[in-house]
UniProtKB/TrEMBL annotation:
Residues 219-308 form the tRNA intron endonuclease catalytic domain. One of its GO terms (biological process) is tRNA-type intron splice site recognition and cleavage. Constitutes one of the two catalytic subunit of the tRNA-splicing endonuclease complex, a complex responsible for identification and cleavage of the splice sites in pre-tRNA. It cleaves pre-tRNA at the 5'- and 3'-splice sites to release the intron. The products are an intron and two tRNA half-molecules bearing 2',3'-cyclic phosphate and 5'-OH termini. There are no conserved sequences at the splice sites, but the intron is invariably located at the same site in the gene, placing the splice sites an invariant distance from the constant structural features of the tRNA body. This is tRNA-splicing endonuclease subunit Sen2. InterPro entries: tRNA_endonuc-like_dom_sf, tRNA_intron_Endo_cat-like_sf, tRNA_intron_Endonuc_cat-like, tRNA_splic, tRNA_splic_SEN2. SUPFAM superfamilies: tRNA-intron endonuclease catalytic domain-like. GO terms for molecular function: nucleic acid binding; tRNA-intron lyase activity. Gene3D superfamilies: 3.40.1350.10. The active site is at residues 249, 257, 300. Keywords: Lyase, tRNA processing. Belongs to the tRNA-intron endonuclease family. It comes from Pinctada imbricata. It comes from the Eukaryota.
């Protein structure tokens, strides 16, 4: 059973993030100032395989706060790995400087207890490579101590070194991976992302589109759907956990739970038959029922998004970003039909 009745997004009980603009660019309706080139923000990304990596810590923070773009490589969502696991430069016996983690005393004692537990499997915990700090949440802490089980009598002066941005000689551990759909929307839809290729050449929009089409066979329908939902105010994220292509949030995952699990279908605009050449899942009734049950179990709705490809559109034209405006999108919300609940004339059953 399909319908198009929208549901009310479920707001999270505890919200710890401040509400920021929906996109990482100046918006005239929010700032009350006309957008100009002097106020425009530009971010830098680097092509790595089939995705784009953002390395600069400032770019990472802005892309997360304003639109929730990408996924942290060392964190689940919010880019806070460098705050939780800071590093320091510790001199070694050989004279070289080796990186060591900074952790709170509580975390150190917990790990020390684990290492002393009998029957512990895996690599032994090396306490000599850890530094204890009294307050791990204080970025200006200078009083560091290093416990060395092999050289207890050796006194060393340890100096804390802040992790610098990606442009310096000491790269940050935290990076942000951006999918092709995210990257091209930032570059094409917002004009705020500059992407460099694997040979450090600046990529044009046409070159970027062609590379993504070659490296990801389903890039075209995914980007059309991604652009569509972004323009509607939704925040699409990966739906791999729920067996779908996207899950979409109102305002962002920091404020609301995802409302819909989205399944993409690339079809011909005239015949509505599935387009060949694009990897798509088979939606028979058995699989559709299973997806519906899983989606219902996590308090979401199953949404099938049909990307309508014009019959006159050739394969050569698809390799150019000018084809984006020629696509159309239709969507249907799918729910399970339960006979006892969907009858027109419900009868009250007498209990024996």
């Amino acid at each position: 059973m399909s319908h198009s009745k929208p549901i009310n997004p479920k707001r999270k009980r505890r919200v710890y993030a401040a509400k920021e603009p929906p996109f990482p660019v100046p918006i005239a309706t929010l700032t009350n100032e006309a957008a100009s080139s002097s106020q425009w923000f530009y971010y830098t990304g680097y092509l790595h395989g089939d995705h784009v990596v953002v390395k600069h810590s400032g770019d990472i923070d802005f892309l997360y706060k304003m639109g929730f773009f990408g996924k942290g490589t060392m964190s689940r969502s919010k880019p806070e790995f460098n705050k939780r696991c800071r590093t320091a430069q510790v001199p070694d016996d050989s004279g070289f400087t080796v990186p060591a983690r900074l952790m709170s005393r509580r975390s150190y004692l917990r790990r020390l207890k684990w290492s002393n537990t009998e029957g512990t499997e895996g690599d032994e915990y090396d306490s000599s490579q850890e530094i204890i700090v009294e307050r791990a949440d204080e970025p200006e802490s200078k009083d560091l101590r290093r416990e060395n089980t092999q050289h207890d009598n050796m006194e060393r002066n340890v100096e804390e070194v802040l992790i610098r941005d990606a442009g310096s000689n000491s790269p940050s551990l935290l990076k942000r991976g951006i999918s092709p759909s995210n990257a091209f929307f930032l570059a094409y839809g917002l004009g705020s992302l500059i992407v460099y290729g694997e040979n450090q050449e600046k990529l044009l929009l046409s070159g970027m589109w062609k590379i993504f089409c070659q490296r990801r066979k389903n890039f075209v329908p995914k980007y059309i759907a991604y652009h569509y939902y972004r323009s509607k105010g939704w925040v699409p994220k990966s739906g791999l956990k729920f067996g779908s292509d996207f899950v979409i949030y109102k305002e962002g995952p920091a404020f609301y739970h995802s409302s819909y699990s989205v399944i993409l279908r690339m079809v011909d605009s005239e015949t509505l038959t599935t387009c060949t050449g694009y990897p798509q899942r088979d939606l028979d009734w058995t699989r559709l029922s299973g997806l519906s049950r899983v989606t219902e179990h996590v308090a979401k709705e199953l949404l099938i998004c049909y990307v309508l490809k014009p019959s006159s559109l050739s394969e050569e034209e698809i390799l150019l970003p000018s084809c984006i405006s020629k696509f159309k999108v239709k969507e249907h919300v799918v729910t399970r039909w339960v006979s006892s609940q969907e009858r027109e004339h419900k009868q009250v059953e007498d209990m024996p």
